[in-house]
Every structure is written in structure tokens, then in C-alpha cells.
Amino acid sequence: MKNLEAKFRLSNHVEAEARASELGYTPRAILHQRDTFFRVANGKLKLREENGVAALIYYHRDESGPLMLSNYEIVKVADPPRTLRILASALGPIAVVEKVRTLMMRDNVRLHLDRVTRLGDFGEIEAVIADGDDPERSRAAVNQILEALGIAKTDLIDVSYFEMLAKP
């Protein structure tokens, strides 16, 4: 799977949700997420624990910069505590990111309004790209929600939450 993503600092969670709703985004869920990242040779690997279920997510980015194209794979995890112990022993954890995420959606675009522990409020847009689809077709939708939220290209962040936590 692929997605086109953008991340940015969020100054007003309630206002962002209202503006997204005006564009037709609908609230889908409040997600309590705990992502444990592991040392890997390529890309990023995390165990995501979310509202009582878990998944292993591997991803790498084809593009660098604030509006990035990522390839990813997700597999459900039946025994999260045991999987966490095995991965921690085998690979070594490098960071844990905890957040409360408001998920909103419109068509193939997911808007995440995140409250990240120790970092603050952020927004993240992910346009899910089906196999064989041109990612450029989703850029317009990503740009539309960025504009509605008042986010300039210079406001976009090109690192993950765990990388932000690691900065001194």
C-alpha cells in the first residue's frame, strides 16, 4: 500500500475539526495509540497498540520532504504483549509515542488530529493510494485540506513523532 502524507503542528484542535467538517470530512473514531518503534536496517517498524488491538506496521518513504509518498505494510498482531517482548529482545526499541487521535475521513483521505504526549497537538493527512493509482491524483485533496486549515507548505514537518521526541 502507499499513502501521500503531510504532518504539521496544530494550533487549535476544535477549529481544525470544524473546518474539516465543512469540507465533508466526517469523524470516524477517537483512537488511543501507543506506538513502539524498533531498530531496523531500512525504513521504520512499529508495533501499534490501539483501543485494545494491535498491528505491526512497516513503512519507508520514497520521497523526502514535507509532502511524502510512503510504502507500508500492516499485519494484525494476535498477542501484543508477547510480540512486544520478542521485538524488544530481537531488535531493541528506540522510542515509544503515545497519542490520542481523532480520525476524520473523506473519500481516500484520512485526517488525524493528534494530541501527542510530550509534544503537543499535530495534524496529519494521509491520502491512501490504491495499487496502480497515480499519487498525483490525491495531491489536490491533500492541498485542499491543508489550505482549509491554514497550513502553508513551509509549516509542514518532515520527521516522525519519535524523531521529534529524540531531538534535544
Task: Give the secondary structure arrangement, pairings included.
Layout: E1 2-9, H1 13-22, E2 26-38, E3 44-50, E4 53-61, E5 67-77, H2 80-90, E6 93-106, E7 109-116, E8 120-129, H3 136-148, E9 156-157, H4 161-166
Antiparallel strand pairs: 1-5, 1-8, 1-9, 2-3, 2-6, 3-4, 4-5, 6-7, 7-8
Your description of this structure?
This protein has one domain (2-166): Hypothetical Protein Pfu-838710-001 (Beta Barrel). 23% of the residues are buried. 24% of the residues lie in helices and 49% in strands. The protein has helices spanning 13-22, 80-90, 136-148, 161-166; strands at 2-9, 26-38, 44-50, 53-61, 67-77, 93-106, 109-116, 120-129, 156-157.
| CATH fold type | Hypothetical Protein Pfu-838710-001
Note the overall shape.
Answer: globular
Low-confidence stretches: none
CATH superfamily: Hypothetical Protein Pfu-838710-001
